[in-house]
Amino acid sequence: MTQIRHNWQRDEVERLFSQPLNDLLFEAHRIHRQHFDANEVQVSTLLSIKTGACPEDCGYCPQSARYETGLERERLLPVVEVMAAAQKARAAGSSRFCMGAAWRSPKDKDLDQVVEMVKGVKALGLETCLTLGMLSEAQTERLKAAGLDYYNHNLDTSPEFYGSVISTRTYQDRLDTLQHVREAGINVCSGGILGMGEQRTDRVGLLLQLANMEKHPESVPINMLVQVEGTPLHGSEQLDPLEFVRSIAVARIMMPESFVRLSAGREEMSDEMQAMCFFAGANSIFYGEKLLTTNNPAAEEDKALFERLGIRIMGGTDASDLEAVEARPDFTYKACSGHAH
Ligand code: SAM
Ligand code: DTB
Ligand code: SF4
Fold it and tell me: CB of 100 closer than 6 A to ligand 3?
């Protein structure tokens, strides 16, 4: 087994990035196979439980109130609606349900409702994940007590590039929230976005931050920027797809035991590029036609891709199992009539 390290140096990570692609892929795939079944991918489904009108100024985000993106704002969804979406995700074969809110940080009153959502989704047998912005220590403890499995909070980019993307909260704020999540005993999901006009040194910087944490995040989402009209980062220069693949491979080498998620941006990726990412060590995706507010490949498309690649969905269902699930009489989505407990 590869040694798990937390003392990565910038120059060695730069060397990893600049190797011939075949050497880099070979090394990443070798490590991937030591720690995971190379033909298995974990799938999570996202739901935006509170959309738009966010006070923050993240330059990539369609949900910021500061940018004209044509997005309709929505209040916090009722628990029963969230439960219905979670049931649908489960029936489609998803093992984790991730609920996201366009908040700087949740108010305690909002958290009451979110706690009900976590309990309800968990009762369906799904893993639960939330992304609600910054959390205090007391809030992470409440969420842990509610049974929350994962909290997503991205570092987004390197500390050096961060200030060109967001001004309303600091890098340290993000690290503090991650620390609270870790200390409460909730699994950490943290990664970033590529293709925001950053340099390779920033991609190295982001991965150094993640891999030199005392404990690696259990889940590392690597997003390709989804360029949304009206956001400041719309029109950013497109990142070379092979540089994205390299970043996945380096993430896999640096964090051998973490799930590396090929996250936002798959709509714009070819099947061949996604296949290379899976070879490079990506072993998780968002599954279902919507991310939070933007599009993701339809489940049908992903099933077809998995079938072509011989990939199974982690947690027991493979592409043919999913067809069987869909053919079942009880597959039809049933609105949940009761409350979430
Ligand atoms: N408001 C909370 C926060 O920022 O922590 C939670 C939701 S926020 C939308 C979750 C993450 O989605 C962001 O940290 C960012 O990494 C990612 N994201 C948002 N817009 C994106 C875009 N256009 N392309 C790729 N990733 C994006
Ligand atoms: C993550 O790293 N990517 C997801 C999830 N964590 C919350 C969000 C992607 C959002 C893409 C833009 C949107 O759909 O609004
Ligand atoms: Fe708000 Fe989160 Fe979007 Fe930033 S990424 S604007 S905090 S919803």
Answer: no
Contact 164, 188 (CB under 8 A): no
Instruction: Look up the pTM and report it.
Output: 0.90
Supply the DSSP string of 223-283, one letter for each residue.
Answer: EEP---TTSTTTTPPPPPHHHHHHHHHHHHHHSTTSEEEE-TTGGGS-HHHHHHHHHHT--
Identify the bridge partners of residue 313 per DSSP, sorted by sequence position.
Answer: 41
Judging by beta carbons within 10 Å of its beta carbon (0-12, 13-18, 19+), is residue 207 exposed, middle or buried? buried
Structure tokens at 204: 């190295």
CB 70 within 8 A of CB 230: yes
Give the tokens for residue 156. Answer: 């987004």
Q: Which ligand is nearest to the CA of 228?
A: 1
Residues with CB under 6 A from ligand 2: 46, 62, 100, 131, 152, 154, 191, 221, 223, 226, 263-264, 291-294
Four-residue CA torsion sign, 321, 326, 329, 331: positive
Per residue, what are the HEC states of 33-67? HHHCCCCEEEEEEEEEEEECCECCCCCCCCCECCC
pLDDT in tens, 58-114: 999 999 999 999 888 989 999 999 999 999 999 888 999 999 999 999 999 999 999
Nearest residue to 311 (alpha-carbon basis) of 296, 322, 326: 322
Q: Which atom of ligand 2 is nearest to the CA of 98?
A: 7
